[in-house]
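HOLO CASE FILE
Compound: DLZ
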Amino acid sequence: MTQTALRIVLGDQLSARLPAIAGADKARDTILMAEVAAETQYVRHHVKKIAFVFSAMRHFAEALKAAGYRVRYVTLDDALNSHSLNGEILRAAADLAPDRVIVTEPGEWRLKEGFETLRLALGVPLDILPDTRFLCSHDAFDRWADGRRELRMEHFYRDMRRRHGILMEPDGTPSGGRWNFDADNRKTPPGGLSAPGRISFRRDAITETVLDLVERRFPDGFGRLRPFHFAVTRRQALRELEHFIAVLLPRFGDYQDAMVAGEPYLYHSLLSAYVNAGLLYPLEMCRKAEAAWRAGQAPLNAAEGFIRQILGWREYVRGIYWRFMPGYRDENALDAHEPLPWLYWSGQTRMACMREALRHTIDHAYSHHIQRLMVTGNFALLAGIDPRAVHEWYLGVYADAYEWVELPNTLGMALHADGGRMASKPYAASGNYINRMSTFCTGCAYDPKVATGDRACPFNALYWDFVARHRDRFSRNARMPYVYATWDRMGKARQTALRQQAEAHRKAMADGTL
Ligand code: FAD
Ligand code: DLZ
Ligand code: SF4
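Model generated. Tokens follow.
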């Protein structure tokens, strides 16, 4: 007898090549997609993220139907909605009586665990298929990682370049003779740097309906819902990719670390939300960047820098996540316990750099990498904020955030809470770094060159306080001896003044006056 299957597509699995869809019998199988409250509530979400996921889900369901699939789509407003993914799978299984249920491995541990308990309740087999949209399987990552003392991204990345033949020459050497062209990247932003305009998409009836739904159902949600410019279909996401490759990639490397007031995007691709939701495939992004370089349309430092983010960092953080979960989520190597200050939600602070990064976050559900790492992340690291609270904030506020990618970036890269599994030294920096790489300090109530007193930039005293607090851990770090030599040269009186100033900043942070 022919078998029927219930096939599940989650909100970040919107890919025609999804393993749970491949091989579907269009006449017999049903594809289930469900908007459920549980997925909007496990952390406080940005309303733009919810709207993006729902609109992209609805468009994807329409595309599946147009291609002849049977789709059961449950909207948030559906009166029978049980509001959890497992609840909807059980309800669909009861209605449709499939012979098996098929799902592609989810991107978050909590859902994978949930599917394991679902197995017991279902009464029919549940197949959890590996997610082949990624370029490195769990087994391949473990084979690379096993036996290594340190899991450095740069070594992983070289392996991935060889395995996938990207930016490689026929004789097995890296294109241009080097693996990494960062020495040519990361320039200080020149005065008046502004980026080319970005494309945006006309909102169709589906998106308008979703925006109304989100407005109605999440009146207290975080962030601004409108204007809403996101691509919500693969076709639109591909147009964004083409625009990035043609117009922005050539200068992507140069200004990758630059931060400019009023310029939330600069030369960044804005493609993370799309590739993470499944509207783009990572390999096509890398191939297009390589082709642009080979055609002389983008310099090698730009193409290599972009490819390293996707083929290197993106796959590497996923490997770290699945290798070290579930314990990874609870790591707090620096023993940081300050609560997350309210300014992360309100965006209201006298620190211009934080205000700017938070403004971008509130308005766009986006902030580019160096702002996430060296402004909001660096501040949380220096101020000793509880990693769990910081993690939940990052997971909710960005349109591209799913735990597999967000957690290692937050806990490992920004907060060093994993004790250095990902980064050999903490990404801790004083106001001097932000002043060099941004235009923010000119509009700030504080002075990046001052460390104590009313005008003191909070990043300065907090930096030295961080250094002093963690002497036992970092003084033996081969990349930090000069920091401790500088601290020791300061003398007792200066050290005490800096630590008292840091305490005053922490107090101001807590009472909302920083
Ligand atoms: P671009 O600068 O144009 O980079 C190109 C692509 O490379 C991105 O689209 C993304 O897919 C990939 N990429 C770049 N850096 C990373 C990285 N460190 N890890 C994984 N992929 C990377 N990225 C997410 O996709 N989701 C997150 O939830 C997320 N949380 C982060 C939290 C913190 C604290 C930090 C420091 C970084 C985080 N990142 C996250 C990584 C990075 O900041 C974003 O991928 C990037 O800002 C997305 O913008 P973009 O598409 O314009 O990136
Ligand atoms: C992020 C998100 C949101 C807001 N809502 C839904 C939803 O209603 N239904 C759904 O299937 N997926 C949603 N998602 C994405 C899931 O949370 C995502 O699949 C997991 O975070 C795993 O990466
Ligand atoms: Fe940020 Fe300090 Fe510069 Fe102000 S002075 S923008 S707080 S780095």
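CASE NOTES: The first helix runs from residue 37 to 41. The CA atoms of residues 253 and 305 lie 6 Å apart.
CLOSED: yes
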